[in-house]
Fold each of these.
Amino acid sequence: MDTKKLFNRKSLNYKVELSNGKKVEYVNLDNAATTTPLLNVEEGVIQELQEYGSVHRGAGIKSQISTKKFEDTRETIKKFVNARKEDYAVFVPNTTVGMNQLAYFFANIKGKIMVSDIEHSSSFLPWIFQEGRHQNSFQVSLNDALKNNTNGLNNKIMNLGRKKVITYKTKEDFTFDLASVEKIFSEQDKKGEDEKIKVLVVTGASNVTGYKPPIKELAKIAHNYGALIVVDACQLLQHEKIDMIKQDVDFVVFSGHKMYAPFGSGAIVGNKNILDAFWPYQMGGGNFPYITSKGEVLRYKNVQAHDPGTPNFVGARSLYYSIKELDKIGVDKISTYEHSLVEKAYSELGKIKEVVLYVKRNKRGVMDTSLITFNIKHFPCLLVAEILNDEYGIGTRAGSYCVYEFSRRILNIKSDKEIIKAVKEGKTCLIPGSVRASFSLVNKEDDIERLVRAISEIAKKGVKYYLKKYSHNNITGEYRRKYYGNN
Ligand SMILES: Cc1ncc(COP(=O)(O)O)c(C=O)c1O
C-alpha cells in the first residue's frame, strides 16, 4: 500500500540528528500515542480557517458557515460509528475528558461501575474520582487549602470512589472470560440497587496488547443486567469500525489525535437521555438559552447544552476530514496493511533471543494488532527507547502506558513496595514497563527493518555497555544501582 501521498512530504521526510552527528529520516513507531496528521486534514483545516467565524454566536455569514460545519461534523461522526439517530455526538478535547464527563453523569445514578484491569488510567480513574467526589460532603477551609492541608479530603474522595468501582481481572493472557464477567454482574445484581452494576467500561482495543474485547457479547451481558456499556474506542477507530447499533453500544469515547486529526478534538457519542438527565459537565456561556431575573437557568435538552464556552471548531473539522479520509481508504484496508507490518516485526523480533514479546498471534495464527510490546532481557525499557531515539532515530514509547497492572503482571512483580517507596521519593525509574512499537499508515516496511536491526544490535552489545554509556541519565543510574550495584 502506497501511503506516501496521504501525508505532508515534509513530515514524512523529517530528518533527525543522531548522537553520532549523522542525519537520518525519523521513524515514528509511536502511533498509538498520537498519529501524524493526514494531508487532507491539514489542507482542509487551513482552507476553512479563511472563512472561519464564531460558532453558535454570530449572525454574520462566517459565523453561519462555521456553525453549520461544526454541527454537520456531529452527523459525520455519528455515521462513522453507526450511532442511533437520536444519539448525541458531544465534542470533547480527548478521551480523558470524555470519560470524566461520562463518569460525572453516572455518579448521579445509584450502583457500581465495572472496569477491567487492562483499561488505560483515563478509563478508570475518572470513574473512581467522580464517584468519590459525588459521595463526599467534606470540605476544607480556605486556609487549609492554601497550606495544602488537603490530604484528608483527597484521600476520602479516592477511598469512597474505589469502593464504587469493581475491577474485572482479565485472564492470564489479558483477555476476557465472558462467563466470569457475567458472574460478577449476577452477584452484584443480587445485592440490591446500590450494589448492582450500572456501567461497564471497556476498551475497544488495548493500548498494551492490541487485544479487542468482544464488545457485542459484553454489551449483551451488561444490558441483561440493566447496565449500560461505555467503550473507550480511542485505540480502535483508526484500525477497526465500531457499529454502535449492531454491537448495541451505549457510548463510545475517542480522541481525534489518535486517528490522524490533531487540534485537541474527540467525541462522546451515545445515549441522549443520560446526557440530558443532569446538568452538563461544565457550565457557562453557550450551554443555555436564558437565565431569568431570579437566576433560574433555563435549559434546552439538546446536544449544544454540552458545548460550554466557544467550541473547538478547528478540532471538530480536523475530525471531519480524518473521518472522510479513513472512510475513503477503508478502515479494513488500513488494518490489513498495519497487521502485515506488525507480522513482519513480530516474526523478526521473535528471532532475537534476548527479546521478550508480550503480544501474540490470534487463534487463527494471525497477527491482528497494530502494536507490539516487548522488552530486551535485562534492559530497562526506558533505556531501550532512549537508545532507539538517540542512536537510531526511531521514536517508540516505553513505560507502562498508563496500564500499570499489565506491567506488574508481565514482569511478575508480586509486591510493589520498593516501587512505591521510590515514587514517593520522586524517582520514577523503578516503575515497571516495556517498549511499545505502534504502527499506522505512516509506516513502511523499511521502518521494520530499521527497528529490527537496531534491537538486534542493542541486544548484542548488552545492557552493561549502555549503562556505562548512558551513565549521565538518572533513570538508568537508579536502575543500575538497584540491579547492578554501583559499578
Ligand atoms: C486505551 C486508551 N484510552 C484512553 C487514552 C487517553 O487518551 P487521551 O490522552 O487522548 O485522552 C489512551 C491514550 O493513550 C488510550 O490508549
Note: The chain has 18 helices and 17 strands.
Amino acid sequence: MTGMLLLRGGLVLDPDPMRGFAAADVLIDGERVAAVGPGLTRPDGAEVRDLAGGLVMPGLINAHAHSPYLANISLVDEEPLELWSLANGAGRGAAPTELGLWARLSAAEMLLGGVTSVVDMVRLETAAADEGLDAIAEGYVEAGIRAAIAPVVADLRLEDTIPLATSGNPIPIARLEDQLELVGRFHARWHGRAGRIAAQVGPSGPQRCSDPLYAGCVALARRLGTRLHTHALETAPQREQAQRRWGRPMLEHLAELDLLGSETVLAHLVWPTPGEIELVARAGAMVVHNPASNRALGSGRMPLPELLRAGARVALGTDAASCNDGLSMFEAMKWAAILHRPFTPDWHDWPHPTRMLQLATAGGAAALGRDDLGVVAPGRLADLVVLDRDDLAFVPPNDLARQTVMRGHPGLVRDVLVGGQTVVRDRRLVTLDVPALVEQARTVAQRDPNPSGSDQRSRPEIEEMLLRPWGGQRPRDASGGEEPQRRQPP
Ligand SMILES: [Zn+2]
C-alpha cells in the first residue's frame, strides 16, 4: 500500500499506557509497524517525517456508533431513550447517497479527532438496504477509516416489548431469514475489502429481538467468524422488561441462548445485577461503555469499576452522534474516567484516567476482533495518531498520558495514519473534500427539514410506563416541587 516511513523524534505510548510515553522512533513498512525504538536507522528509500517531539499513540477505536443518526444532531428534544427512539428513525429509509454522506462526515469528524476505527451499527428499513450498506462501506473506504459495519437485524417492534407486555399480545416474528441473509450478503461483498472493512452481525437488542433471531445471529457470527454486536440493558425499563418476559435477569437468559461467548460485544450494560456482572466477566463477552450517551439520555451509569474489578473486558464508544451529541473519543475517555467517582465510595476503586487510553485502543481492538491493533508495536497495523505536544493541554508536561485523557480534545490531533496511509496531515483530512461534504449536508437538510422519521403513536403508552415508578405522575408533581433522585444501578 505504501513504502517505508520513519517517524522520527517523537514520544511513543507504551503498549501498557500506564507506563506513559517514551522517546522513540517508529518505522512503518507498508501497512504495519516494523520497529519501535530510540535512534532507529533510516533504511534506504524510507521517507522520514520529523515529529519534533509529537506524541505517538495507537489510533482511538470508537466501539459503538450509528452513522445515519448524524442527520439528527440537535434536532431531537431531551428525552429518555424510549421516547428518543420514537423520533430517531433517521437513516432507516434514507437514500444510499445520503447514507454515504453521513458515513463520510462521521468518518471525517472521527479521523480528525484521532479515531482510526469504528464499529457502526446500521439499521435500515428499506428495500434498498443492500445499496445503503454499500454506500456506507464505500464512504468509509474513501475516507480511509477502518470500519466494522453491523447491519442491524430486529424482528420485534419496540412498542410490543418495552411497554412491558401490558397488552399481552403475542409477539410477531417476521422476516428472520431474510434479515440474516442480508447480513450474509453484506459479509460476502465487503468483509476484508480494501483491508479496512469488516462485517459484523448486529441484533438490535433484546427489546427488539426474539430468541430465534438471537439464536440465528449466534450461529451466523460463528459461521462467519465475526463479532456479534448488540445492545443490552441500556435502560431501567429494559431490565424490568427482561424480568417480566423471562422471569429472570436479561443476561441469564442471553447466556442460555449461548450469547455471552467471546465473540459477543454488549453495548451499554447500564443496569446489570451483581450476578450479571460476574456472569459477563466469566463468560468472556465484551462490554462497550458509552458514558456520554448514557448521561445525555438519562439512561444511567454503567458500573465500570465493578465490571473492571470482576475482570470484564471493556471498550469505549460514543454511541449515535445524535444522542451524545458528537463523536469525540477524547470526551468518552474523560467521561469514563470521572463519571464513576461519586458512586464509588472507596476511591481506591476509581478507574485510573490513564487506563481509559487502554480501553479506547486495545479494548476497542478486541471489540473489532483484531489482535493486530490497539498498541504501537512491531508487527501491528500502523493505525497511529500524532498529538501536538506544544498544545496547552500538555503544559506543563507533568503526566502526558493522564493529560491526554483529562485534558485531551480533537484539536490535539496533528497527523493520523491508518494501515500506514497518512489520512490526516497537519490537521487536514487528505482523503475527503470536507467543504464539499459540508455543502451537501446543508442541501440535504434544506430539502428535508425533519429527517427524523418520527412516529409518535406509542408516545402516551411509553410516557405512562416511564412515569410508573412515580405513581404515574410527573416526579415534580408527585414530590411537591422537589426533583427526585434518579434511580441508580446497584
Ligand atoms: Zn447504540
Note: DSSP finds 17 helices and 18 strands in the chain.
